[in-house]
Structures are given as C-alpha cells and as structure tokens.
What we know:
A: alpha+beta, B: 595 residues, mainly alpha, globular
Amino acid sequence: xxxxxxxxxxxxxxxxxxxxxxxxxxxxxxxxxxxxxxxxxxxxxxxxxxxxxxxxxxxxxxxxxxxxxxxxxxxxxxxxxxxxxxxxxxxxxxxxxxxxxxxxxxxxxxxxxxxxxxxxxxxxxxxxxxxxxxxxxxxxxxxxxxxxxxxxxxxxxxxxxxxxxxxxxxxxxxxxxxxxxxxxxxxxxxxxxxxxxxxxxxxxxxxxxxxxxxxxxxxxxxxxxxxxxxxxxxxxxxxxxxxxxxxxxxxxxxxxxxxxxxxxxxxxxxxxxxxxxxxxxxxxxxxxxxxxxxxxxxxxxxxxxxxxxxxxxxxxxxxxxxxxxxxxxxxxxxxxxxxxxxxxxxxxxxxxxxxxxxxxxxxxxx
Amino acid sequence: xxxxxxxxxxxxxxxxxxxxxxxxxxxxxxxxxxxxxxxxxxxxxxxxxxxxxxxxxxxxxxxxxxxxxxxxxxxxxxxxxxxxxxxxxxxxxxxxxxxxxxxxxxxxxxxxxxxxxxxxxxxxxxxxxxxxxxxxxxxxxxxxxxxxxxxxxxxxxxxxxxxxxxxxxxxxxxxxxxxxxxxxxxxxxxxxxxxxxxxxxxxxxxxxxxxxxxxxxxxxxxxxxxxxxxxxxxxxxxxxxxxxxxxxxxxxxxxxxxxxxxxxxxxxxxxxxxxxxxxxxxxxxxxxxxxxxxxxxxxxxxxxxxxxxxxxxxxxxxxxxxxxxxxxxxxxxxxxxxxxxxxxxxxxxxxxxxxxxxxxxxxxxxxxxxxxxxxxxxxxxxxxxxxxxxxxxxxxxxxxxxxxxxxxxxxxxxxxxxxxxxxxxxxxxxxxxxxxxxxxxxxxxxxxxxxxxxxxxxxxxxxxxxxxxxxxxxxxxxxxxxxxxxxxxxxxxxxxxxxxxxxxxxxxxxxxxxxxxxxxxxxxxxxxxxxxxxxxxxxxxxxxxxxxxxxxxxxxxxxxxxxxxxxxxxxxxxxxxxxxxxxxxxxxxxxxxxx
Lengths: 366, 595
C-alpha cells in the first residue's frame, strides 16, 4: 500500500524535520520569550492534530481499501460524534487563543518607564532620534523635511532642540530597560525587524506607530526591513547595538543634537577623508544600492567605476571623471546609466562631505 | 428536514414543473458554436484553458524567482526590479487569473447546470460576454510587461504609497494597467457570478432541493456569493489608488518626501487601502478554497463508494466559513500599525473560523473510514489534498494568533502557509477534478499510468517544497527579498545551511514544474486516444453522470430534464443492487428499502 506508507513516512519525516533541523528560532535577545512559549504551545497542539488525523487517515485507507465483496458503510451522519469533535476542536482553539491573547495584552501595554527612541525609515535607509535630556521628542512634520533638516523637526518647538539625531547606520540601546520604539516613515511603508527581538511593526507615512521591548543581551543585531518598499527593500539594513548603560551614554554624547545641526556643525568626525567618506557612504545609505564588489544591485557597482566609459539611458557614452561623479551625487537623475531606474535621491551633503565621499569612491573603485 | 429522506422518503414521482423550460439559443455557425458560444460547457473550457495558459506563465515566473533565490546573480536579467515584478505578477496571476477564474469560471460553468439538472445557465448571453471580458482583462495584464517601466513590482497586495511612487518599478504604466485589468476582471466576474448564483437558486430541476445538491455546488455557490460581495472592495481600492496616481488625489497618500521630493499629496491613509484590500483579500482565499473543498467531498465519496459523512454539517460549515470570512480580514494587518486593540478581535474571529474548517477535515477522513476505497488517480489527489490542507490549515492558526504572527509576519513562514493552502491543496484538488471529470467532458479516460506518475511527483514534490520553507520563516528569513545577502552580506543569524534549503526547494520546484508537462501531454493525448469512458465510468450518483450523451450536447439532458428523488450520496445503500443509486432514480427502484 504505497500511499499508506508514503503518508506515514511524510508524517514521521515532518516531525523528525521539526526536531532535527537546525533551522528554528534564532536565540532571543529580548524580553519576548513569551512569544516563543506561545509558539511552542501552538506547535504542540497543531502538531498533535497533524500527526493524529493523518495517521488515522492512513490507517483508514489501509483498512478500508477496495474489495469487491465488501460494501462501504452507509452512515449519513453521527450527531454525537460530530458534537464531540466540535467540542474538542473548540477546546484546542481556546488552548491556543487564550495564552496568545494574554501575551498580546502585554504587547499592547507599553511600560510607563520605557525609554523613548524613534526610528525613521525612508527608501532605503534608517535613521534614529533620541529625545535628549528633556525626555521629550520634538514635534515633526514631513513638510519640514529638506536638505538642511532631514529629520523634519519643527524648528520652533523647544522640545526638539536637544533631540539627538543619528543619521548613521547604528542605533544603540542600553541593556535591561524597556524601550518604546516609535516609528516614522518619510515616504512609504517599511517595517523595523530584528529577528532576535521577535517584536516588529510597520512604519506608515502619515502615522506614528510603535512597539516595545527590553533588550536582554549585549551584542550587535541586524535590522532588516520587513515590508516591501521598492527596489532597495532587500538592502535596507541597519545595526542595533545593545550595550551597558555607560557605553550607551558615551556613544549618545558623541551624536549631534538638532540645535547643533541647525548651527551647521556637520559631521566633523575624525579620520582621513577616505574614512569619513566611508562613514558617509554607510550613513547616507549609498551602499544599500551600490555594491563594492562588482555584484548587481539597485544601482551601478562602485568597483571599477572611476575612469570607465558608462553608457547612458539615451545610448550616449560618458567618461566617469570627477565632474560626472559629482553630478551623479547631487543631481543623480540628470544622467542615468543604461539598465538602471532613475530613482536615486539626491544626496544632501556639504562641500567637505562631498569631497570625502568622492575620495572614498575613488579608493573603492580600484 | 430529515436527512434520511434519501432512503426513506424518496418520492416515487416528482410533481410537474410550474415554470416552462428554458429556451436555449442554438447557434448555427462554427463561430457561434465554439468561439462566441453561449453554452456554459464551452465557456467553461474557454475559462479553463485561458486560466491554465496564464497560470503556466506565472509558473515560469516562479521558477525564475526560485533560481535567483538558490543561485543569486546566476541569471543576469533577474535584477532587483525585475525580481519584484515577477513576484507581483506571479502572485496576481495565480490568485486571481488562474485560481479564481478556474474554480468559478471553469468548474462553476461546467458543473453547475449539469449538477443541478439545468439545461444551461440562466443568462447564457451574459455568461458568454463574461468570458471575453475576462480574456480582455488577462490581455491588459499581460500588456503591462511591454509598457515603459514594466509591470508593477509592488507585490500582489499593491500597497500604496509605494505602488504609485518612483522607487518601485512599474509605478507609472504598470500599476495603472494592473488596476484597469482588475476592474475588467471584476466586471466579468460579476456577470458570471450572477449566472452561477441565480442558476443555483432558480434553475434546479424538479426534486432538486437545496439539501439534495452536491457539496460541489454548495461550495461554488457560496464562493460566488463571497465574490459578488468582496470584489467591489478591490474595485474601489483600485479606482481610488488610480485616482491618487493619475489625478493627484490623496485617498491613500499622506504627506510624503519621495526620493528627495516633497509631493503634493496630504491627509490620506495607506492603512485604509489595506483594510479595503483585505476586506476583499480574505474572502478571496475562501473563494479559492471553498470550491476545492466541495470538489474534494465529491471525489472522496464517489471513489470510496460511501456517502459523505455529515452532509448537513458540511453544508453548515461551508456557509459559516463563508460568512465568517468577512470578519477576519485584519489578520493580514496585525503589524500594519492599525489600532492594536483590533488584534484581539481579529485573532478571535480567525481562530473561530478554524472550527468549521476542522469539521470539514474530520468529515472527509470519516468518509474514508469504513468506506470501500478505490485508490484511482482522482482519489489519490483528493487524499493528497486532505494531507496538505491539514498542514496548511494548521499553520494558518499560527498566523491567526496575533502575537505568534508578530515574529512570523513578512517571513517565509507566511509564504509557505499561503502556498500550502492556496497553491498545493487547491491545485491537487484541481488535478483530481480534471482526472475525475475529463471522461465526462471528452468521453475518454485519461491515461492511468501517466496520472499516477503525475500524482506522485507533484504531491511529494510540492510538500517537499513548502514544508521546509516554514522553518526558514521561523528562522527569520524575510519574504520578497531579491537576495538575502545585502551590502553587508548575510545577516549574522542566517546560517549557510539555510541557503542549502533554498537550493533544495528550487531543485524540487524545477522538477515539479517540469512534470506538469506529462499532465499536459496526457490531456492532449487522451482526448483522441484515451480509453472510451462511457457515460458513468466511476459509478457516480450526481446528475452530470446521468446525461443522455457523453460528452453532453447543448441542453445537457436530451429531450427531458431529469427529476431528482434522492440526495447526492446514495452510495453502498444497504439492500441496493449496485453500490450506488443515481439521484434521478425513483424510490422503490434499485433499493431494498421501503419508500
């Protein structure tokens, strides 16, 4: 009875796969172990149902295979059995729903003392804002967003003056305390997702969304976007760094405030122009679309870029020299390389930053 | 009304009809007979062939996607943009243009008149027009491959603002053509849907009460009502998004800085689109699943020679699932940013819908129990359906339970779940249905050896594709990603072995996709060289097997419509001469029971 054997093997194989495969929840680094527990309860109940019903079916197929001298039973219904099965199923459903809703109740109630951090998403990079010493995030408006105010802060709101602005690719958090991550998008739907945290939430333009968690493990974690947001969706990455309170404060001090940004401080970080350029390429999200190793991406690779002859969309050819590089950074859709879409946002850089970035570009071009 | 009317109350005559028989339009030209046909059977074939053809295209797109996932960068024309365009077109074609069209337009048109004892649908001309509108919708959709910017790459869910903003491929022509195509699809399906619903309500033959209808008809009937009520939500969201795109309105568009530019929109809500879309989108999956449920009930009872267990509860379950399907939609939106308290409501309704669904599964299995099971090809596929649907239905519970959905949302767990319940189970049901009804449609049997080969590779292959995929999702692998290694390489938690899973899945996918050629060849070969089937090769009770001619001619039943005396599941009736009694056999004939 090949079918019966195959069904039984598939059931056993599925169960074995579950227990023996290395592909399961990545080790948790937040307080949301309750989610893992609810997942386990669901696996137990559903796994039981999966095994029992399929093995029962396989047995039935074996026992009641066609024989010419037999007749099947004639039993239109069996009210008692059907009632019991309904009741049993309802109990199973409650067994999963009840813990699920209890944990969800905790998920939607943000602790009073949660530290406030804001993540801002845009195609295709992340930036962050902390409320500063006053503990209050300044008001923002999308209409305020421009080259000199990329976070869109309301300059007249005193609460925003001390807001700490991190345009770079890392968000730091101190270990052990609850964090309310408020989420804001400048353009389209995104989703802030760190698998080790378990919690996630969409970013919606026009709305502030949020979720909360307590980081419980020191370490660095990849942040991924989990809502399809266009060409660079798969590359919209960031890093979440969880560290001791003291280290966190030290890092936070080094980040510019809105007041400093307004005063034109710029990112005067140390290092050679090439190092600063590398920092910019990460902060501004350039490397989300431009690879350094020659591989295909949303935009042309930087490897071997300088000095080559590029073919543009209209078929004409251009030499990649300083002038072309500069134009491609500040007015990227003026000349688009053939085969690529005209979707690069103009980079918002000071002259010094532009010089550093070009130095870095030339150094990676090889 | 007593269920046992089958054996005990079967009347020995049915009263004459009060309404005159339907006058059918008999075409005189070849074009009128086979192209612009008003015969639901021809229209059914037109829908089915068109749906399967466009489905094959979507299958090719999925193979390309899988190749990119297994061997990133191997095929140079698969770029980040074209990848998400393939993802989008694959999804939309499969859900709407293949599955919905095939189950409702294909199986609905062929089976409804035959199974309820009608000569044709009640509005044959409108029915004919519905197909041509569907075809037109398909052509508009395919045209989006050839316009500037190409087809939309916003995912089959078409979420704004991204769908209509630069940064997503196809945000100009592509999304516009998609919306226009969907609009025509809805128009065509409203025309068809009115036919299916009204025919079932008004054109059943004498004696065919609602509770004597086969479950296939209950299922397609309920699915059609769902479609008539749900598709308008899709239509309005497509229209509103097109207005936002083309006229600058702001239904779904808040203030936005798109790629450095302040846009003129303001005040709109992207979440509103999601509510509208999923108000359609959730019933849509039941529009696909319910006909599959109905078909499987038929296949199991016929080939196990046993009445479906719990027919009344099966009807109740179909109707309740249909009704509940309208109050669960936001389980697709748990992390959308909607009011979190909605999560309590929608998780509850979603898990409630698990109960009637589970009852159907129990009843299929209990039909097999104490049956006399012939493991022919339709039965193999039906059992394959039950096995894979148990898996897919159960993983739905993971995602329906709001807090468990949070880590799994937008990962491969979701992709694995919806393929298992939309692609694996219903496709197995479709194959089973084709092997089952092909003898009635063509008068010949499909080749059995090829059928069994097709079954084994498809069933085991599809399970091997989608079962492991769940674990990639649990690991955390996001969906709709062109590549898992971004600019910074693979995420820390992504082991190399997980990439091996991707390779394995792709190889299985290529094998399963290729084997479908055997099925296509079987369809073609058996049409002229298959074993002659006769009128009722399976010994089935339902009316389509009792036609005077096979294949049935225009008007289905010859000079006189059948009268129905019993329910659709008189198999292995105690005391009866044969192990089945057709619905149109009066009581007292062929049964040892009184009455």
